[in-house]
Amino acid sequence: MNIPARTQAAPVHLQAVTKRYAPKGPAAVDRVTLSFEAGCLTTLLGPSGCGKTTTLRMIAGLEKVSEGRILIGDDDVTRLPATQRDVSMVFQSYALFPHLRVTENVRYGLEVSRLPREVVEQRTQEVLRLMGLQALGARYPHELSGGQQQRVAVARALVLEPRVLLFDEPLSNLDAKLRRHVRQEIRELQRTLGLTAIYVTHDQEEALAVSDTIVVMNNAVVAQAGTPRELHERPATRFVADFIGEANVLPAQVGAAVDEERVRVQVGASSLVLPGRAPAGERRHVAIRPGRVRLHAPGTGEAPAGTLLGTVRRASYLGETMEYVITTDLGDVLVASPDTQIALEPGTGVAVELPPAAVVLLQD
User: Fold this and answer.
1) 29 contact partners, CB below 8 Å, separation of at least 6
2) What is the overall mean pLDDT for the chain?
């Protein structure tokens, strides 16, 4: 599908955008400043009520901005109606017209725009081929599977050749296996066409799988933004560490600075040198992923100095890994061990090693 220059993918900029549903009420979105890069897929991720869908709807023009500005490319669209923003949205419910066939659903937006009939037909057939829907053109929505309905919804948005494509929880109505397949289709399509896409979900696995950048929102503000790898490996806060995958969050005390970029941190018996800066004596938390924790059981060699001593409370075989819950003086530590040949029984005493390269000093 050829995207003409007039609808080339555009960046989106939010400048201190706020949304209140009542003049003196709480902010549903609170002074959010963000940039969505052209040609990339950015996901707004967070729990229900965090402000992600409201942010998407303000970009679409479906909600009015209380304060701040929204720019698409160089155009200030803050006060423009949805029909003048050159964006398309794929809704959670698909929002297909039940009385129209697939082909009629896809070309509906073009017909409303009163384009020449030959242009409407050319673009419609082009996007039906792109989405693999040629054979389904004569069917009604109720005659389609959930995955097929989703592809029709995407086709209807794409046919308008928008500068920005918006997705609002597009896979929430699909089963787990189909979600995985459809999210791959969406990602491949976005990359192939070089679309600017903004994608809303509460599913962290989905966000990690499809995104160039993830923006984690909580309580109406941005908690952290970065690549999937950055957010998973270097979360900034306890909320992000807990929300992006599994994490062990343990209490710690900051010691003396080692240099301008590193500080010594005491985590139980472990004295670790970690990237970051914080006042000496301050109580903080650190995070480490279960797969990065090392276990030393009796008979497996001497554990390094400074490990945490604990006892296996629970052991679960998960096929590719053994999952352990280890009780320590700092609380329970979750461990995902790749060694499935040896299962440690509950009650076994172990030493828990926290490799410094895998430990993150959190801001709160």
Assistant:
1) 17, 18, 19, 51, 54, 55, 58, 220
2) 92
* Whole-angstrom distance, CA of residue 157 vs CA of residue 1: 13
Residue found under tokens 């970009």: 59
The domain limits of the chain are 5-233, 249-361
Tens of pLDDT, residue by residue over 172-193, are: 888 888 888 888 888 988 998 8
Let me know if 158 is exposed, middle or buried by CB neighbors in 10 A (0-12, 13-18, 19+). buried
**To which CATH superfamily is domain 5-233 assigned?**
P-loop containing nucleotide triphosphate hydrolases (3.40.50.300)
Instruction: Give the number of C-alpha atoms closer than 13 A to the C-alpha of residue 234, restricted to the C-beta side.
Output: 9
Does residue 102 sit in helix, strand or coil? Answer: helix
Tokens of 14: 């939010």
CA distances for 316 relative to 293, 325, 340, 341, 352, angstroms:
16, 9, 10, 12, 17
**Backbone Cα Rg of the chain:** 25
- Sheet with 349-353, strands from edge to edge, namely 294-296, 349-353, 308-317, 322-328, 331-337
Domain 249-361 annotated CATH 2.40.50.140:
yes
- Name 82's Cβ contacts closer than 8 Å, sequence gap at least 6: 60, 61, 62
pLDDT mean by block of 10 residues, the chain; 364 residues: 55 98 94 97 96 97 97 96 93 89 93 87 91 92 91 91 92 84 88 93 93 97 97 96 93 94 94 93 96 86 82 95 96 93 91 94 91
The residue type found at 292 is: R
167 vs 151: CA distance, rounded Å? 12
Do 17 and 58 touch, CB atoms closer than 8 A? yes
pLDDT for the residue numbered 76: 98
Check: CB of residue 56 under 8 Å from CB of residue 32: no
> What is this structure's pTM?
0.89
Q: How many CB atoms lie within 10 A of CB 253?
A: 15
Query: Are the CB atoms for 166 and 156 separated by under 8 Å?
Result: no
